[in-house]
């Protein structure tokens, strides 16, 4: 997918507005293991995934808690950094070698002041991120481990082949032992 196609799937932009956003974007190739956002630094960019896979997580004592995985077409953003210009809650790292479009957050925020279409694109992008977060929270509170895993397989079957089981277990809010039992039961 091109950056234009990805941006247009979030919110259709007129050509002039789309061109303004495209002018801010820089394509970067980054290796697996690259940290895009750290939980102890202010985020300066948003990223749009053209190729690859990323995850967001927080460190807690002796473990990491995975919040989400994102692949092609996703916008990677620290919502706290983006909306409050504050240090992020999470760390976002690449799980695969990736091709990304990097956009400076400050420059994008400035563009919001001059182009209502781009401002609406930004609003819809954040709404989608918040919706995904809410869905994850509800799933963890009201669905069993088996239901959460079955939903993961249904919505993102590629993740099971591309992501370490420890990350998947953390994302589902269960241990690797429980994940192993769930996988055996659902086969």
Radius of gyration: 17 Å
Distance between the termini: 34 Å
| Order of H and E elements | HHEEEEEEHEEHHHHHH
Main sheet characteristics? 4 strands, antiparallel
- The number of E-state strands comes to 8
Average residue-wise pLDDT: 91
Q: How many helical elements? A: 9
Low-confidence stretches: none
Strand order, largest beta sheet: 1-8-3-6
Helix content: 40-55%
The gross shape turns out to be: elongated
Q: What fraction strand?
A: 15-25%
What structural class do you assign from the helix and strand content? alpha+beta
Notes on the structure:
This protein has 187 residues and is of the alpha+beta class. It has helices at residues 3-10, 15-24, 79-84, 105-114, 116-142, 145-155, 158-162, 165-172, 176-186; strands at residues 25-30, 35-37, 45-51, 54-60, 63-70, 75-76, 91-94, 98-104. It is built from nine helices and eight strands. Strands 1-8-3-6 form a four-stranded antiparallel β-sheet. Helix 4 crosses helix 5 (116-142) and helix 6 crosses helix 9.
């Amino acid at each position: 997918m091109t950056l234009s196609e990805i941006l247009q799937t979030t919110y259709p932009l007129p050509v002039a507005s789309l061109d303004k956003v495209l002018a801010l974007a820089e394509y970067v190739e980054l290796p697996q293991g690259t940290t895009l956002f750290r939980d102890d630094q202010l985020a300066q960019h948003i990223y749009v995934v053209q190729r690859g896979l990323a995850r967001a997580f927080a460190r807690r004592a002796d473990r990491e808690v995975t919040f989400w995985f994102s692949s092609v077409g996703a916008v990677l953003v620290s919502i706290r950094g983006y909306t409050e210009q504050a240090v992020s809650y999470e760390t976002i790292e690449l799980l695969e070698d990736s091709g990304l479009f990097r956009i400076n957050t400050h420059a994008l925020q400035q563009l919001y002041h001059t182009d209502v279409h781009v401002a609406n694109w930004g609003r819809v992008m954040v709404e989608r991120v918040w919706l995904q977060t809410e869905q994850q929270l509800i799933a963890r509170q009201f669905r069993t481990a088996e239901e959460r895993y079955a939903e993961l397989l249904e919505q993102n079957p590629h993740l099971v082949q591309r992501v370490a089981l420890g990350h998947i277990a953390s994302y589902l809010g269960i241990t690797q032992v429980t994940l192993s039992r769930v996988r055996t039961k659902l086969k």
